[in-house]
């Protein structure tokens, strides 16, 4: 599952993935996300795409207040947590092995009076989608979830299932390999896709996708 297999200390820029926690300041709060690369791998570290997506959400281009949102492949949950703190009602999802860790991070970073704004739930792309409301979300969020070619069809199926004609999909991506571009091509067969932000320093693209042209 590792995106960037490496020996600790051989690539200093990546050693932050081994830190037991990562700290951020978003939505007027100091957030401290626990990390555990050795136990859970990619799902238990904060990726740059999540940080850039949170920065983008904080800019306020997208109205979050009162919106019903879902985060796919949430990992530590940073994006979903920030979306909830910015006023959305968010279902924060990932595969089963990541759920306990995700719950802990959500509980520790959202104040008790706002806990109701975030629900953590298992969602493996393409599986048991009937447990979710078809087309029931205003906003779908995903950070660094385009990286496993074998999941591309299921991920696209999930995005289509959860989206109505009024849903806005926001994907923050680092394009590492040609195959990642292939997912964007697949996405374009079902959605209208537009790049809305590029973070040069972190090399992260944010794409906005909607089913109909009226939402862009
Ligand atoms: C690179 S991590 C990104 C985590 C987080 N979004 C971030 O940016 O910090 C990819 C995430 O996708 C999740 N994932 C991978 N395959 C999945 C699948 N088939 N269904 C649901 N989630 C999946 C992983 O568990 C992991 O949390």
UniProtKB/TrEMBL annotation:
InterPro entries: Methyltransf_16, SAM-dependent_MTases_sf. It comes from the Eukaryota. The keyword Transport does not apply. Its main location: cytoplasm. It catalyses: L-lysyl-[protein] + 3 S-adenosyl-L-methionine = N(6),N(6),N(6)-trimethyl-L-lysyl-[protein] + 3 S-adenosyl-L-homocysteine + 3 H(+). The keyword Transmembrane helix applies. GO terms for cellular component: cytosol; protein-containing complex. The chain crosses the membrane at residues 40-59, 65-86. Keywords: Cytoplasm, Membrane, Methyltransferase, S-adenosyl-L-methionine, Transferase, Transmembrane, Transmembrane helix. One of its GO terms (molecular function) is methyltransferase activity. Pfam families: Methyltransf_16. Belongs to the methyltransferase superfamily. METTL21 family. This is Protein N-lysine methyltransferase METTL21A.
């Amino acid at each position: 599952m590792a995106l960037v297999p490496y020996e600790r200390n051989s690539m200093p820029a990546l050693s932050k993935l081994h830190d037991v926690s990562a700290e951020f300041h978003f939505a007027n709060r100091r957030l401290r996300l626990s990390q555990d690369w050795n136990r859970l791998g990619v799902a238990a570290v904060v990726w740059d795409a999540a940080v850039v997506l949170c920065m983008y959400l904080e800019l306020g281009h997208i109205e979050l207040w009162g919106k019903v949102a879902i985060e796919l492949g949430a990992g530590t949950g940073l994006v979903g947590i920030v979306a909830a703190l910015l006023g959305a009602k968010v279902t924060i999802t990932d595969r089963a092995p990541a759920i306990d860790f995700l719950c802990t991070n959500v509980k520790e970073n959202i104040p008790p009076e706002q806990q109701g704004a975030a629900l953590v739930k298992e969602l493996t792309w393409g599986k048991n989608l009937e447990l979710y409301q078809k087309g029931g979300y205003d906003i779908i969020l995903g950070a660094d979830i385009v990286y496993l070619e074998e999941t591309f069809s299921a991920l696209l199926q999930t995005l289509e299932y959860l989206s109505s004609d009024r849903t806005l999909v926001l994907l923050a991506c680092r394009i590492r390999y040609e195959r990642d571009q292939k997912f964007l091509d697949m996405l374009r067969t079902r959605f209208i896709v537009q790049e809305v932000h590029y973070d040069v320093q972190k090399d992260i693209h944010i794409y906005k996708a909607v089913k109909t042209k009226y939402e862009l």
